[in-house]
Amino acid sequence: MEKTIKLSGWQAVVAIVIIAIIGGCYYIYMTETLNTDGVEVLQMHLKNEYLRNVTSEISDAMKNPEGKEAELSKLTSKLDKFNIEIVSVKARRGKAPGRDNIYIVRAEIRIDGNTPSESMDIRYFKMEYSMMSGWRVYGDSFAWAYYTSFKFI
């Protein structure tokens, strides 16, 4: 026995509006908060990445150090004091077959109170949580992966 539902006119409009409201609410409320351990791991990843760039600049300047004392002291002072601040963090569960512990994380960052020199103040990362090892950053991700990571119930 086959049942069909025919909606026309105002009934179809009401049905589309209800579906759009439910889908919109689901999309808005599917973001999760990243706990402090996850934020600390992400901050450590960003610090390591930033230090890698500074140390490569120092090694380049050390190849011919004559006349570059001011530049070298400026670069070494960056190593002593720099502050990576994560202004906001949002996470969504990523799509991975059989794995519910993959997250796509959107982070708004500031370095020393300013936007990073690469003008990438909002970055996306792929992270994983394991009960055995805790949080792990796999690396950079993309905005489309964050905004299209639907997790259907």
**What share of the residues lie within helices?**
40-55%
Look at the helices and sheets and give the structural class: alpha+beta
Strand order of the largest sheet: 1-2-3-4
- The number of helical runs is 4
Average pLDDT over all residues:
79
SSE run: HHHEEEEH
The radius of gyration computed from the alpha-carbon positions, rounded to a whole number of angstroms, is 23 Å
Kindly estimate the percentage of residues that lie in beta strands according to DSSP: 15-25%
Give the distance, in angstroms, between the N- and C-terminal Cα atoms: 28 Å
Q: Sheet with the most strands?
A: 4 strands, antiparallel
* Overall outline: elongated
Q: Runs with pLDDT <50, length 5+?
A: none
Number of strands: 4
If you had to describe this structure to a student in words, what would you say it looks like?
The chain is an alpha+beta fold. Helix content is 42%, strand content 24%. It has four helices and four strands. It has a four-stranded antiparallel beta sheet with strand order 1-2-3-4. Helix 2 (36-63) runs antiparallel to helix 3 (69-80).
Characteristics:
four-stranded antiparallel β-sheet; 4 helices; alpha+beta; 153 residues; elongated; 4 strands; 24% strand
What is shown here, in short?
It is built from four helices and four strands, in the order αααββββα. The protein has about 150 residues and is an alpha+beta fold.
List the helices and strands and how they pair.
Layout: H1 10-28, H2 36-63, H3 69-80, E1 84-93, E2 102-111, E3 122-130, E4 134-140, H4 143-147
Antiparallel strand pairs: 1-2, 2-3, 3-4
